[in-house]
Amino acid sequence: MNQLIASLLLAQTRTDLPPVAPEGGTFWLPPGASTAAGHTDAVFYFIYWVSVFFFLLIVALMVYFAWRYRARTPGQAASGQVTHHTVLELTWSAIPLVLVVAMFYLGFRGYMDMQNPPRGALDVRVLAKKWDWFFTYPNGHIDNELHVPVDAPVRLTLESNDVIHSLFIPAFRIKRDAVPGRYNKIWFQARQPGDYLLMCSEFCGTRHSDMQTRVVVHPPGEYEKWLTEASDPFRTRTLAEVGAMLVARRCLQCHTVDGRANIGPSLKGIYEHEVELVDGTKVIADDDYIRESVLYPQAKIVRGFGREMSSFKGILKDKEITAIIEYLKELSNDSR
Amino acid sequence: MSAMNPANPTSDVPPATGGNYLTQTRGILSWVFTRDHKRIAVMYLVSILAAFLLGGIFAILVRTELLTPNKTIVEPDRYNQFFTLHGAIMIFLVIIPGIPAALGNFVLPIMLGAKDLAFPRINLFSYYLWLLGALLAVLAIVLGSVDTGWTFYVPYATDVSAGGTLMGGVIPVLLGVFLLGFSSIFTGLNFIVTIHKLRPPSMGWFQLPLFLWALYATAIIQILATPVLGITVLLLIVERAANFGIFHPSLGGDPVLYQHFFWFYSHPAVYIMILPAMGVISEVISVFSRKHIFGYHFIAFSSVAIAVFGFFVWGHHMFVSGQSALLAMIFSLFTYAVAIPSAVKVFNWLATMYRGAIVLKAPMLYALSFLFIFGIGGLTGLFLGALAVDVHLHGTYFIVAHFHYVMMGSTLFAMIAGIHYWWPKMTGRLYSELWGRVAWVLAFVGMNLTFFPQFLLGTHGMPRRYYNYPPQFQFLNVLSSIGSYLMAAGFVITAIYLLHSLFAGRRAPSNPWGGATLEWQCSSPPPTHNFDQPPVVGDPYDFGALKYDAAIEGYVSKT
Q1: Distance CA A194, CA A150 (A)
Q2: What CA–CA distances, in Å, run from B130 to A127, A314, B53, B275, B523?
Q3: In what order do the strands lie in the sheet with A194-200?
Q4: Which of B92, B129, B321, B369 is most deeply buried (CB count within 10 A of its CB)?
Q5: Å from A51 to nearest chain B CA?
Q6: According to the 3-state scheme, what is the secondary structure of B211-278?
Q7: Do residues B6 and B14 touch, judged by C-beta distance below 8 A?
Q8: DSSP string spanning B316-354?
Q9: Residue A66 and residue B353: Cβ atoms within 8 Å?
Q10: Under 8 Å between Cβ of A297 and A130
Q11: What is the CATH number of domain A35-70+82-115?
């Protein structure tokens, strides 16, 4: 049992995240794995080559002039005194104008495509909270990883229950803020099965840079299989085993199970033991206390810790909280 | 101090009778209560450079932490405070006031042939507001452990976890910024009135040096945009104190509204930073090419165009925040509109060099590197204006690289160009040209090595403000950190030879570079009242009336 829990914990701590995208791509961009990436990359490289042209032109002229027209004696006068040339001015205003209008149009078209998902897209709800991601699938299953089928449109509806986060999948070239108090939507269609990195790209505090997870793009038919298995962990596991899995996925961003304090207190050995709160009162961490701490974390703050945690109400089901309590019981027994 | 070598009789402007502005009165109180724009400018310059040192130390700490993908020197919370301090100090204390308040304050009245700014007392008042605001903001960030980044986005910035009680955390920082804002407004107001009212009768709008056009356009932004920053701070305070739901979602407010308010000031503020820099470049390139500026009217009006368009682009900071697609489209279009006047300026500077007699002294080296750096900074802005591409690049190191190329690379290099250009006028001393070149090479190479790899980090997906980063990004991060050390070495050398010149530098003639603007007609350093003789007003870019005098290694009037 303990070995199993240990292996589960190892598997779930975020040391095994994939790179941004598999090998490949170009000098400037990682391989694009979504339908949007093609257009975005084309616009990127259009602007890139226009910029390279103008940059080389400017620097070449500058270096050439600085050398060709260098003063050879102190106080030497310039060899020409042209002060203006209206046709030239209008030309070098008009050419950039045409180019930037083209850039605007191309960028706008790609953006509108990202705003409007096709009919029948798979709906996944995304909750961002410090410092993890919670993906709710159509059958109600909540997972910390984003699993999607290949070649199918997926619509993400983002929300946050604390501060602003931003969902960023570099390989898909998409990004959208998760803003508390409103829903933001974005969609994509993955083209390549594989593992990709999803990151938070809006600063959200201490562990902002750890708010990363995996996007798994399943080959045809595999997504449904994954969802069925992931949806009912209780079928093949004991309560404590499920609890261990949940703790690894939901809690270890801030808590530990080895007795060391992190952003929150360690979960080891607290079950039915006395804890001291910020106001000095002492309470026993029994089943009800743990349940309350999960659902209403601000109600009782342990002495020496901050008010970082937000509620798991609606994220963890009753049965799952029970499983967590069972696991904490095991952890307490181990430490005896 | 202003003794001339009697063996070398020259036709240089004689030193001021009764001493120059530095020596005419003595004692600490003569500085503390001075109303002389030149002394106030020197106080600004010293304070701003001190802030630059502080912000630079935090930059080095940030880059050092990022040498490895995990912990290198500090814990994440400390790292977050480092980049907050770096950003807030550099933006609010260095780059926004840098060129207008220090260099502009010094040369604006002299360029007009005036004795002082229109409101000398307000000028002194705005310096003390700056000082007070600077101390309040920095102390509040340090004491309140503020780790929000310089943008102070709500709800993170006003949440309890960020220390957001009414008198702790982010509110006092914003009060500091509020004071800094008023300092900026007063400076802008002073400049506008001075340019309108204190021009000599023979100087029309199109005989103004382009630096003054740039400062004028900047001043308009300062007085129109900065009040919105004040309003934002007041709304935040009202929300915290009276629980009115304005920005915080738990009270029914909208955090995106805060971003609109914030960027309504902070985007025009970007032009407060870059326009004066462009003004300096217009002066330096013309003088060191010994050639009339090309396209005067286009450069002048492009400053005004940038100032006006600059007010309609703030939403490009919110393309992924959930503002409507229609707004995003409009903001993208206006963003591209700003590109045109910027490009026009660059082409005009290049045309100014054509058939000139180019002298590659320190101010010109920095001015030419401005063209290089602003070229990259400006062109990479095109990627961010394109909506679809911005979705990928927003919030990544691409942005960090882009705005450092524009704000750090361009504005700061222009400021250093300006400091070297006006140093002989301000101090009466010349610095070592050799060390100037050495430092320039280090700063220029270091700057590009620091920030160019960050474009690649960004396009490959590394978000900004990351303490831990995926190991695949380490190589580019190490390059960037090495660059930052080189650049720091360049700035330290610059500080050393400039300070050294104060004591051991050769005495400067009144016109060492051959500038035709009026500040080169008074002695170096100028007397308190600037001119013993009323200056001769002419075309600020006509160098035909000047001749080089080898005896004084400077320029004198032909007549």
Answers
A1: 9
A2: 43, 49, 17, 20, 30
A3: A146-149, A212-218, A194-200, A165-169, A174-178
A4: B92
A5: 6
A6: HHHHHHHHHHHHHHHHHHHHHHHHHHHHHHHHCCCCCCHHHCCCHHHHHHHHHHHHHHHHHHHHHHHH
A7: no
A8: GG-TTTT--HHHHHHHHHHHHHHHHHHHHHHHHHHHHHT
A9: yes
A10: no
A11: 1.10.287.90
Distance of CA A120 to the CA centre of its chain: 25
Rg (CA), chain B: 23
Q: Is residue B539 less than 8 Å (CB to CB) from chain A?
A: no
CB-CB neighbours of A233 under 10 Å: 16
Q: Which residues of B touch A48 (CB under 8 A)?
A: 383
Q: Average pLDDT over chain B, rounded to whole?
A: 91
Residue boundaries of the structural domains of chain A: 35-70+82-115, 122-231, 233-335
CB within 8 A of B244, min separation 6: which ones? B238, B251
Kindly state the helix (H) or strand (E) to which residue B65 belongs, with its residue range. Answer: helix B37-65
For A122-231, which CATH superfamily applies?
Answer: Cupredoxins -  blue copper proteins (2.60.40.420)
Residue A40's φ and ψ, nearest 5 degrees, are -55, -45
Asked if this assembly's ipTM is beyond 0.95, the reply is: no
Q: How far is CA B337 from CA B114, B283, B348, B387, in A?
A: 36, 25, 18, 14
> Quick one: which of B403, B414, B334 has its CA closest to B367?
B414
Is residue B43 a part of any domain in this protein? yes
DSSP alpha helices (H): ranges in chain A?
2-12, 35-68, 86-115, 222-231, 239-250, 287-295, 318-335
Q: What tokens appear for B228 in the block?
A: 């919105």
Alpha-helix runs per DSSP H in A169-313: 222-231, 239-250, 287-295
Nearest to B463 among A61, A112, A201 (CB): A201
Stretch A205-233: mean pLDDT, rounded?
Answer: 92
Q: Which token pair is B80?
A: 């977050």
Residue A70 tokens, joined: 């260098």
Which superfamily does A233-335 belong to?
Cytochrome c-like domain (1.10.760.10)
Q: A166 forms bridges with which residues in the sheet?
A: A177
Site of tokens 């004591």: B503
Q: B3 in a domain, yes or no?
A: no
* Contact at CB, B291 and A81, closer than 8 angstroms: yes
Q: Taking 70 as the threshold, does the pLDDT of residue B10 lie above it?
A: no
State pLDDT tens for residues B439-467.
999 999 999 999 999 999 999 999 999 99
Adjacent-strand bridge partners of B555 = B548
